[in-house]
Amino acid sequence: MVYVPKGFTTDPYFNAIGSKAPNFRAWGVVYLKRKERRGLRKRVLYKQYARRGRFTLSDYKRKKNLVLIFFPYNLDFDGNMQILKFNERYEEFRALNTEILAIGNDFCYVKRYNLSVSQKFGGLKGLKFPLISDVWRTISLGYGIIGTNYKSAQHSIFIVDKFGKIRYTALYDTRIGANVGEVLRILRAVQYLYKRPLRVCPPEWQPGQETGKLGTIDQSEAYFGYLEWLNRPPKSARYDSYLDRLSRATKKNKD
Description:
Blueprint: E1 25-36, E2 45-56, E3 65-71, H1 77-88, H2 90-95, E4 98-104, H3 108-116, E5 131-133, H4 138-142, E6 155-160, E7 166-172, H5 180-195, E8 199-200, E9 212-213, H6 216-230, H7 242-254
Parallel strand pairs: 3-4, 4-5
Antiparallel strand pairs: 1-2, 1-5, 3-6, 6-7, 8-9
């Protein structure tokens, strides 16, 4: 049984779009390269290794957007394939001032071992973004992606803007992978709306296409609501007000 700490919830509808993303602080592993020169006349060697460190959501606040990828376990085939797809297009995320954090329910030493295995054999060697360990499921519980019938996190993606608000969420079946292009499209739309907050991006919007104005839907609802009020059925004489009685009397006099 997973212990639910104070301030966390298992309700999947708790973290609605636009709400503040729950902060966390956890251990993670990142793949690094280091220059080494053993002697003056020898060539420079690049030593590759995985280093453990602490990662906090608040460190990225007002600096970068975040894409949080939740998956159950690091040795899971579907989880590794999805992470590698994001790794292939990592430079596109960097161009949008976005960092990716992959969060799984493994220990740090499992993630460190996975980073040492080549991608040909199902590992994540050469990964460009960190892997975060969520052994006690506190992060997954905070984001409401552990149901009552699950003991691990479900496959899901969260987009958190640089102001710490959730702008996009998606939950997937364990046998269905995510669409990386759709995540990039949402990020481009979020950055577009930073500069133009009174615009609305239509479905399947791409940079360079036309956008709508904020408030047009509300105005149309008010207009059609006014038409319904004009065409409302007449009230019975029992509930007439003083003005209604005067209008009825004037109509009778004209007739």
